[in-house]
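During the reporting period the student researcher (J.K.) took over the structure-prediction task from the postdoctoral fellow and processed the backlog of single-chain submissions. One of the processed entries is reproduced below for the supervisory committee.
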Amino acid sequence: MTDATLPLYHLLHELDAHFDQLVATIERAAALYEFNPPPTWRFHHDVSEPIWLRDALLDMWHQQGQDGRETRNYIAVIAANDDLLAACHQINHAKANISDLLARIKQSHPNALSDAKSRLPNRHPHIDDILRKSGFARLHLKQCWRQLPIAPAPVSRVRLAWYSSGRSIKRVSVQEAEQKLLQLDSDAPHIRIQLRKLASIPSGEILAQVQTQAPLMRANLFFVEPLADGHTRRALNIAMPLIVPANEGRLPHLKAPAETPPTTRTRAKRRDEKLEDDVYLPSLRIYRYR
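J.K. obtained the following C-alpha cells:
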C-alpha cells in the first residue's frame, strides 16, 4: 500500500511515534550532558547552566510572527564521551525519520501538513506548557529536522568563522516570472511597468531570481589523524552545537569567530558569474543573464 492510499490517520500515528522517539532521544542526551557536563564552548554565552543544551535541542517551534525561513542558532562546541556521542547520533537518526515522514505526508496529503505540525505539542504536556508560556506556536520544520553536526573522528583544532555566500540563484522562465508578477498587485503602476519590460524580451529567455542569504557560521575541523579517505580536515556549516569526540577529555584548540557577522559577502565573486549588475524585475529580485 502506497502513502497516497494509506489513511491520513495512519501516517499521523506514525508521525506521533517518530516525534515521541525524537523527544526521548533528546531527553537521554540532555540527561547525559547534565549529569556529567563535558568540556564545552558556547558563542556569546557561558556554560554554567548545563540545561542550555536541553533547551537548544527542544527548540523546534515557531515563535509568533517568526519568518518560516528563519531559524534560531545555537553555536557551540562540545567534547563528548562515547555515550554522549552515541546519544547525539540517535537524535540525528530520529530527526531523519521525521524529515522523511513529513516529506511523505506533504506529497500524499499536502493539506494535512499544517495539522501535522500543530498536533505534536499535545503529545507532551510539558512541551505544550512551554510553548504557551514562551509564545511559541507550532512545529518549525527546519528546526525540527536539522541535524547535529558531529565530527567523524577526534579533532585537534576547530577554526570558526562567519561565512557569507551572498546569494542563491534560481533559474526562472519568462512565463514563470509573469505569473509571479500577476500574483502581486497587477494594477499597481510599478508592476505594470515590470510586466511591460518582461513582454519586451524573448519568451524563451531564461532569467535568474536572486535570494540574499543570511551569514552562516562555518567550522573548519582539523583531524588528529587522516580520515579513511585521506582527508585531514573538513568544513561544516553549523547552526547547532558541534559535537566532537573528547580527545584526552578536553576541547580541541579553538579559534573563535568575530563577534558579529560581516556586512559584505566573504565569498569571492565567481569568475563565471554572468548576471547583469542591475536588477531587471525589482519586485521579484529577477536579473537577466549577460
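The committee noted the following: Helices lie at 8-35, 52-57, 82-108, 113-119, 125-134, 141-145, 174-182, 189-199.
J.K. will present the remaining backlog at the next meeting.
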